[in-house]
């Protein structure tokens, strides 16, 4: 754990402009990291001790009780007593069978319990003890005021170590679509962040074992992960709008292309919240930004890393140009951009040609979407 020269305080003016803006680049920082970087660091909640597995209980059926005799039953004249006796005799016969089944089930559950207890003692409790030690150390740092940079750096480092979800290998049977600008921007990321870049889709962040999100790029600086996304307004082939602002409360309402709904929410907010909940930072650039100003995008990342890790140094060979903000788009404005072939207007010739070829191939395989009058939103 290296501790370079750092300065504690507010983000640089360069970064502050983008953090306060509602345009691209979109920069999101987990709340807990903001708290640690702030002047006052609240004490986190203590880790809860994992619940110990419950030992199974052997269930045994009680011995059947014979029915009580009546005066008539002594003379064989009580039909109800005879029926109850038949049930009693059947229960007596089946009683050992049921108890044997219960016993076999108990043995099976007991073996499972023993495995769970072994895992609980050797893995779960060990992890819990580590979290307790981390919590006690963090609590001590918080209560001490954390007025020095080294202590705050140490607190952040420990917190991310225990609370950040790690990148995981992608399933081999999954394929992932790549944007045309990713390979272009990857050259710059590799040049400036070669050792810190985790190529995607070789690495992902997983939600349990059923769902996962695949970042365009992943940076790992010390214990901090950054999800880097490149957003384009529409899909190259289908011209389908993507990464747009939507109004969730008015989805069913018919709207013209120029209608701007209220209470807009980015369609990727749910995805971003997942990364933030796992203590990853999220940075979204537009495709145009990474193509036209790749070094300015790198500087945004540099300023962000410096802010989080309280560093002061910037790369000497980076351009001093600022990154021009780009407004977010709605679903309907993205349709208009697709009509005008907006992406081909800023992409380098080879990339623009790949977009055009993808579109032509799509129209050839989907002739129903061909529009001679150019009045459809595709």
Kindly report the average pLDDT value.
Answer: 82
Strand order of the largest sheet: 1-10-7-6-3
Helical segment count? 12
Cα(first) to Cα(last) distance is 52 Å
The biggest beta sheet reads: 5 strands, mixed
Judging from the principal axes of the Cα atoms, what is the shape? Answer: elongated
Structural class: alpha+beta
Task: Report the order of strands and helices.
Answer: HEHHHHEHEEEEEEEHEHHHHH
What is the total tally of β strands? 10
Beta strand % = 5-15%
Descriptive account of the structure:
By secondary structure, the chain is an alpha+beta fold. The protein folds into two domains: 13-39 and 167-369, no CATH class; 42-60 and 77-144, no CATH class. The protein is built from twelve helices and ten strands. The protein has a five-stranded mixed sheet, sandwiched between helices. Strands 2-4-5 form a three-stranded antiparallel sheet, with no helix packed on it. Strands 8-9 form a two-stranded antiparallel ribbon. Helix 4 packs antiparallel against helix 5. It is elongated and about 110 Å long.
């Amino acid at each position: 754990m290296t501790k370079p020269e750092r300065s504690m305080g507010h983000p640089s003016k360069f970064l502050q402009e983008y953090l306060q803006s509602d345009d691209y680049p979109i920069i999101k920082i987990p709340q807990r990291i903001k708290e640690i970087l702030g002047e006052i660091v609240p004490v986190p909640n203590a880790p809860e001790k994992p619940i110990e597995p419950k030992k199974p209980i052997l269930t045994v059926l009680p011995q059947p009780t014979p029915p009580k005799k009546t005066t008539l039953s002594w003379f064989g004249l009580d039909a109800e007593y005879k029926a109850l006796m038949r049930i009693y005799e059947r229960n007596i016969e089946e009683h050992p069978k049921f108890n044997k089944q219960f016993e076999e089930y108990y043995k099976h559950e007991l073996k499972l319990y023993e495995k769970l207890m072994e895992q609980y003692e050797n893995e779960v409790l060990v992890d819990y003890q580590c979290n307790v030690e981390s919590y006690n150390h963090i609590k001590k740092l918080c209560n001490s005021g954390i007025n020095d940079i080294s202590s705050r750096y140490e607190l952040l480092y420990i917190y991310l170590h225990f609370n950040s979800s790690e990148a995981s290998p992608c399933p081999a049977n999954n394929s992932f679509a790549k944007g045309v600008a990713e390979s272009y921007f990857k050259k710059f990321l590799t040049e400036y962040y070669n050792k810190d870049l985790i190529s995607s889709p070789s690495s992902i962040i997983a939600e349990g074992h059923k769902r996962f999100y695949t970042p365009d790029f992943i940076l790992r600086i010390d214990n901090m992960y950054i999800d880097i996304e490149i957003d384009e307004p529409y899909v190259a082939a289908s011209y389908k709008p993507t990464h747009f602002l939507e109004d969730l409360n008015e989805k069913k309402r018919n709207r013209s292309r120029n209608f701007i709904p209220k209470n807009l929410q980015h369609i990727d907010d749910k995805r971003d919240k997942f990364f933030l909940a796992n203590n990853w930072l999220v940075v979204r650039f537009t495709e145009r930004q990474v193509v036209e100003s790749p070094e300015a995008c790198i500087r945004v990342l540099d300023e962000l890393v410096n802010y989080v890790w309280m560093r002061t140094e910037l790369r000497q060979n980076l351009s001093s140009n600022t990154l021009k903000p780009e407004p977010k788009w709605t679903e309907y404005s993205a349709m208009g951009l697709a009509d005008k072939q907006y992406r081909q207007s800023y992409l380098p010739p080879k990339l623009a040609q790949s977009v055009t070829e993808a579109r032509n191939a799509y129209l050839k395989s989907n002739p129903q979407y061909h529009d001679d009058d150019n009045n459809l939103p595709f």
